[in-house]
Amino acid sequence: MATVELTCPTTLWDLARGEADRDAVVATMEHRLPPDGLAAPAMPRRYRLTAATLRLLDSRILRAALEILDLDVAAPVLRGLTGYQRVADAARETGPPTGSGEVTAVLLQPHPLPWTEEFEVGLHVEGHRVATFAFRLEVVVEVGETAVVVRGGAIDRVTCEAASVTASLTFVGWPEPLWAPEPRTVPMSLVVRPPLPVPVRRSGVAPAVPEPRGTADSRPASVTDDGRRLEHPGGAGDRARG
């Protein structure tokens, strides 16, 4: 199997989607929705929308939710690797004021690196938010034997024999994941630009690393009542304009 050459940032969509495109993923997610869908139970009674319009809104809500997959998956993986003692030792050896050259730290049994993102998609009608839909993204990246190249006290490159990515996207309150692709396992080579500094205490022991989190801004995305425009989480505001 060919090694996958990655650069930082690398999105979860690029790494976990396989051959599927977004239209195909949305269509699959629609079949896994609750029986009444998303929009119909949430719409105020004063709005009388056709079944076709409600289905369109469901599709727009799901497409907005999928934009969370554009978050960077490389950053939390790299933060997890900075917690290993061998990586900290390499950073101390190559870092200022006396460090020079580069050191390759080989990690034989790294632990799985999990993280969770919770976010919302808002539904607006006539300029007013009328409903909010909560979603949860859960990701686990598990790597096999991994070589971490440290230069100047920072991670410069990472190569692993096999990186397994497992992910699922769930509508909060509904037990079945709407998106849960088969785990992908690939050899991976990651070039880190700019290099990621490794936090090292004076003793050379890396401080505790908090649970990795994605880097996407999780402000709500929005759809209009007619589903004409979407707004990416972290966009210029939290209301789409029709």
Helix content: 10-25%
Q: Summarize the helix and strand pattern as letters.
A: EHHHHHHEEEEEEEE
Please identify the oligomeric state.
single chain
With helices defined by DSSP (H or I, 4 residues minimum), what is the helix count? Answer: 6
List the helices and strands and how they pair.
Elements: E1 4-7, H1 12-16, H2 22-31, H3 39-42, H4 51-66, H5 74-81, H6 85-94, E2 102-107, E3 113-125, E4 128-143, E5 146-151, E6 154-171, E7 184-197, E8 221-223, E9 230-231
Parallel strand pairs: 1-7, 3-8
Antiparallel strand pairs: 2-5, 3-4, 4-6, 5-6, 6-7, 8-9
Helix pairs in contact: 2-4
Question: What does this protein structure show overall?
Answer:
This protein is an alpha+beta fold and about 240 residues long. It has one domain. Helix content is about 20%, strand content about 35%. The protein is built from six helices and nine strands. It has helices at about 10-15, 20-30, 40, 50-65, 75-80, 85-95; strands at about 5, 100-105, 115-125, 130-145, 145-150, 155-170, 185-195, 220-225, 230. Strands 1, 2, 3, 4, 5, 6, 7, 8 and 9 form a nine-stranded mixed β-sheet that branches. α2 (about 20-30) crosses α4 (about 50-65). The longest helix has 16 residues, at about 50-65. It starts with a strand and ends in an 11-residue tail after the last strand. About 35% of the residues are buried. Mean pLDDT is about 80; it is low at about 1-5 and about 205-240.
